[in-house]
Amino acid sequence: MGHDHDETTGHDGAGHSHGEHEHGEHGHDHGEHEHDSGHEHSHGEHTHDDHHAHDAEGVEIGVLTVSTSRTLDDDPAGDIIATACEDAGHEIAERRLVADEMDAIEDAVATLLDGGVDVVLTTGGTGLTPDDVTVDAIEPLFDRPVPGFGELFRWLSYEEVGPMAMASRATAGVVDDRLVFCLPGSENAARTGAEKLVAPAVGHLLGLVRR
């Protein structure tokens, strides 16, 4: 990233010299350029004002826990996800639990979406062991992936657990006009994904998907 910063600085420096050259040879054009800059500035303010104009409010969320050892009464990761979303003003419409089986996971996600939820958050089954099949079951449903979610999640996880963060296959994608997020099953990972990424951003992301 330091290299990119150096390139940016160099570009800015070159732009400054170029501006001085034009000022000397084309003084009249410089005045017109200032007028154009003022117009662009107003346009930028307009874009900023409208940035969240289409955000969805009160998003209905389905939480799906993937586990063969948990129950809905003993589901700390699911509890953390539900609390984070509710604290952000969203509604938990339904919670389900399903075994680590590809067909069962796919059917459960499809049932939640068919039931009318805007977003599905799964927890569990995103690692590298043979029985971690959540991602394999759900990715074929995606019309479009949302790669930034997994990238940001692993970046945040790296700050907590170091290079072991690469073992997570946490992912997200668009299904029709809804969103599905696949989070790990550990409590810390569920908290990181739900509190720092999904809960604060899901309304804006859903608004973009539905434009």
From TrEMBL:
This protein's UniProt keywords: Molybdenum cofactor biosynthesis
The family note in this entry says: Belongs to the MoaB/Mog family.
Q: Name one GO biological process term.
A: Mo-molybdopterin cofactor biosynthetic process
User: Quick check: keyword Coiled coil in the entry?
Assistant: no
Which stretches does the entry tag as region Disordered?
1-51
Q: What is the lineage of its organism?
A: Archaea, Methanobacteriati, Methanobacteriota, Stenosarchaea group, Halobacteria
In Swiss-Prot or TrEMBL terms, this protein is called Molybdenum cofactor biosynthesis protein B
In the UniProt record, which is one GO cellular component term?
cytosol
Record flagged with keyword Ligase: no
Q: Where is the MoaB/Mog domain?
A: 62-205
Among Gene3D superfamilies, the record links this protein to: MoaB/Mog-like domain
